[in-house]
Fold:
Amino acid sequence: MKMPIVPLIFWLIVLIIVTVFFGATSHAEGFDRKYWSAAGNAVATIGADFGSTVALVGHGSCPVEAYSPWMYGRRAEPARVGAVMALEASVALGVGYWAKKHNKRLWWAPMAYMTAVHSRGLANNLQHCR
Structure:
């Protein structure tokens, strides 16, 4: 059974919007809920994409990485995929944190971008590699 991409991406976008714009911020306690909610969404999506890439790509109906073979390699080795995605998550969260602390309006953009890119990768893996 192939998973439809449009509903998955729609609900991920809804989740990002609700998290970023309606999350409560508590500076008095030292815990920024908006930032950590956006970061949690990004990390969860990257983790799901990592799991699906390692589990599905290079086996059965998906013998090679077709979406980004230059980044993960044609066989998608777990160590390489993990290193690339960990670096992406670190950069997105670091840039978002820096922007949030310097009161930039688009502090959430790096995390939203990573969420969108990896939700697309997850949807691609689930749709084509089963």
Remarks:
- Residues 5-128 form one domain.
- The first helix runs from residue 5 to 22.
- The helical segments are 5-22, 33-56, 69-72, 78-101, 109-128.
